[in-house]
Amino acid sequence: MKGTQLGEFEELVLLIVGVLYPEAYGLSIREEIISQTNRKVAIGAVHSSLSRLQEKGFLKSELAEATHERGGRRKRLFSITADGKRALEKNHELRNALFNQIPEMALKGLQLSGI
Amino acid sequence: MKGTQLGEFEELVLLIVGVLYPEAYGLSIREEIISQTNRKVAIGAVHSSLSRLQEKGFLKSELAEATHERGGRRKRLFSITADGKRALEKNHELRNALFNQIPEMALKGLQLSGI
DNA sequence: ACATTTGTTCTACATTTACGAAAATTGATA
DNA sequence: TATCAATTTTCGTAAATGTAGAACAAATGT
Hints:
Two copies of one chain form a homodimer. By secondary structure, chain A is mainly alpha-helical.
């Protein structure tokens, strides 16, 4: 990859940032991924993906003010850029198009696996 | 990835194998990816992805008989397994669901990038 | 002041993706 | 049947992504 392609996990993170808008930050993103996918994710994985997405220009971020909760350190809030939106839509369209091009025969009988 | 997750390129290859059925083999897959995505792909990338997909159980393959064309080493033809189909559908559904959960606001005004 | 909670940064390593040269077959031709 | 040209896969290596969790930072409660 030449640094402009969206990886599998990166795409997931990008989508979740959209879903969580405007409250997308490291921990909330992690929680949302876990609850929507049943997949376990370490916090470090999320943050490294976030910073790579920002380097690629698909996300931007700003430091929010601290809240009044216990702990409540300042959050870094992420949001999608125009490039990020384009990348997401492009992937979505490509995949839908390919999905629809698969002939019936290619998948016929596959649901009753090894009888 | 723990060996059962589909990588970004792997998912693309899996879709193309479906599209090309029953004539999916290394070179034809490479050509189809290039023509459908305008992305340049090396033959080695395709083959390593194919063998990983087979290890994961998402693809199966068989050696076809030689054709009558000049040259023509025997092709290894790939097709999707039941597990592969499931993985593809699961990804497709998840992505559609997430896409639909993104609030309008998250993408508002992003099309007119840097005027 | 100190413990606790929330959150981000840093570091290290595993897996996937990428590239292209080398090797293996196969039909054609001499 | 030896060699050539064409087609396809295999192999070795480098770079990008994915995964994990400890270290570090800043806020609140007592």
